[in-house]
Amino acid sequence: MMHDDRSTQARQADILRAAAALAKSELEHEGSGHDWWHIHRVTELAKRIAAAEKADLFICELAALLHDLADEKLVDDPETGMKRTESWMLENGATAEEAAHVMEIISTLSFKGGAGKPMTTLEGKVVQDADRLDAIGAIGIARTFVYSGKKGRPMYDPNIPVRREMTPEEYRNGKDTAINHFHEKLLKLKDLLNTDSGLAIAEQRHAFMEEFLERFDREWNGTDGL
Ligand code: ADP
Ligand code: NI
């Protein structure tokens, strides 16, 4: 019915506005690469990919806006964070079905040192691709050096080997460098993308990272130029 369609749209627009305000206020001063601008970039990418893949725009945008609010690095207890996020959606007018779909997406999102559970819905695949795309390319490079700097880790140390396998604990707290993180995670992300549209964006971002790493290596060894 026309009337219902219009009120659904208005209800969803209100939720999206409130979710953006919530993410902005909670993550404004976050310093590990999950700040509001990460959320903003992921949300814009998710909308573009959702349109190309004909996924549900509302679910994709809402999940993108809320996806890092319960991240283990941001809250002491991710489970409480998850429950808060779900209650927030229900209190702000989401249907039980919408809230459950978004919760399914954001609980599956985190990478945590190994390949996580596969995403089961198209909307989950879209948001996961958008989040992974923000970890690669020029933005991915910048975020990685900011994160390493915040952790007091070196940008590179030839004596710290790249880890082929690691526990979640080692992934978070082991000896690491910014350059190693490319080999331990970021260069693997392209092959984990779910959608063709995401992959098309990832190809360019991946190539840029490879070029950066080759140049870094040449400059490190003093073999560039001349
Ligand atoms: P996700 O966004 O999947 O939760 P993380 O929280 O692990 O991923 O990391 C977010 C960003 O922080 C990464 O894209 C990366 O730039 C940076 N980062 C995470 N772990 C490291 C690390 N060990 N070394 C350098 N940068 C890291
Ligand atoms: Ni994220």
TrEMBL record:
Residues 35-136 form the HD domain. Keywords: Hydrolase. GO terms for molecular function: hydrolase activity. CDD domains: HDc. PROSITE patterns: HD. SUPFAM superfamilies: HD-domain/PDEase-like. Signal peptide: none annotated. This is Putative HD superfamily hydrolase.
